[in-house]
Design goal:
This protein is of the alpha+beta class. It has two domains: 146 residues, Sandwich (Jelly Rolls), CATH 2.60.120; 92 residues, Orthogonal Bundle (Arc Repressor Mutant, subunit A). Helices cover 50% and strands 20% of the residues. Helix 3 runs parallel beside helix 6, helix 4 packs across helix 5 and helix 6 runs antiparallel to helix 7. The longest helix is centred in the middle third of the chain and has 44 residues.
C-alpha cells in the first residue's frame, strides 16, 4: 500500500465538516471516536461512535460533526498496490457503510502505530505499515463473519420455533405475513431465511404439515372429510381436496377407503 497521510486522535469543533464531491483521490479509512453525520446516497445518516468506515477512491466524501457536539477520529489516506484491492475485496468488508466496532482501542492502536512508523526511517517501514493495515482489515472481516454467524444462529432458533408450531398446530390460520411479523422480519427476508435454513419454503412446509395431519385424521378417526379439512387449517373444502390430491395422488375420500 502507498500511505499518503495518517491522523491519530484528531479532534474538531462543532463546525467541522468534510465535503469532497469527487473524493480525496485515494482511499480513506476512518475510525470514528465520536458519532457523526454522513451523507450516503443523498440521505443524512447518524453514524455511532466507535465505528469503522471505508471510502474507496473517487467516491464522494461527505460527513460532519453532530450539531452542538465535537468530532474525533483516526484516519489514513492511501492507495492500494498491485493485487491489494483484490485482497481487500476478498475480506468482504462493505464500503461506505458504518461498521460498529467491538474493540475500538485496538484499531486506534493500529492507526497510532502506523502514524509512529510513518515518522521513522526504519528499514521495514512500509512492510510494518502494511501489516498494521491488514491486521485491521482482518479483524473487521472476522467481526463481520462472527456477527453473521450469530445472526444466522439466532434466526435458526427463531425459525425452528415457527416450524415446530406449524407442525404441531397446522390447524391455525398461518400466513407468511403472520409468521414474518412474529419473527420481526420483512416478508422477503423471512421467506429467504426460512428456505435457506430448511430447504423448503414456508408455504411448502405448511402444506406438508397440514396434509400429514389430514392423513392421520383420515385413517384414525371417523371425522367427516369436511371436519378433517377444518381441523387442518383449511376454510375451503375444495382447496383442501385439491392440495390433498396434488400431494397424495388421490382425493381424501379414496385415501380413507384404502386406509392410507
Amino acid at each position: 500500500m502507498i500511505l499518503h497521510n495518517v491522523g491519530y486522535n484528531h479532534r474538531h469543533d462543532a463546525d467541522f465538516f468534510v465535503d469532497r464531491p469527487a473524493g480525496s483521490g485515494d482511499n480513506l479509512l476512518l475510525i470514528l471516536r465520536t458519532e457523526a453525520i454522513f451523507t450516503l446516497n443523498g440521505e443524512d445518516v447518524r453514524v455511532p461512535a466507535n465505528s469503522f468506515f471505508f471510502y474507496p477512491k473517487d467516491m464522494p466524501q461527505n460527513y460532519r460533526t453532530v450539531p452542538q457536539k465535537t468530532f474525533a477520529n483516526d484516519w489514513i489516506h492511501f492507495l492500494f498496490e498491485n493485487e491489494e484491492s483484490e485482497w481487500f475485496r476478498a475480506k468482504d468488508i462493505p464500503v461506505a457503510t458504518p461498521i460498529p466496532l467491538r474493540h475500538i482501542e485496538f484499531f486506534s492502536f493500529c492507526i497510532k502505530s502506523i502514524a509512529d512508523e510513518n515518522g521513522t526511517d526504519h528499514l521495514h517501514k512500509s512492510d510494518s505499515i502494511g501489516h498494521y493495515f491488514w491486521l485491521m482489515c482482518n479483524k473487521v472481516s472476522e467481526q463481520l463473519h462472527e456477527d453473521a454467524q450469530l445472526a444466522r444462529s439466532t434466526h435458526y432458533e427463531q425459525l425452528l420455533v415457527i416450524r415446530n408450531k406449524i407442525y404441531s398446530m397446522p390447524y391455525l390460520l398461518w400466513s407468511v405475513d403472520g409468521a414474518s411479523h412474529e419473527m420481526n422480519m420483512s416478508r422477503s427476508a423471512f421467506q429467504h431465511h426460512y428456505k435457506e435454513q430448511f430447504g423448503v419454503t414456508f408455504i411448502q412446509d405448511l402444506i406438508t404439515s397440514r396434509i400429514a395431519r389430514a392423513k392421520m385424521l383420515l385413517t384414525t378417526t371417523n371425522m367427516t372429510i369436511q371436519d378433517v379439512a377444518e381441523q387442518c387449517g383449511y376454510r375451503n373444502y375444495e382447496h383442501f381436496a385439491r392440495q390433498f390430491r396434488t400431494c397424495c395422488g388421490m382425493p381424501p375420500g379414496e385415501f380413507r377407503k384404502i386406509g392410507g
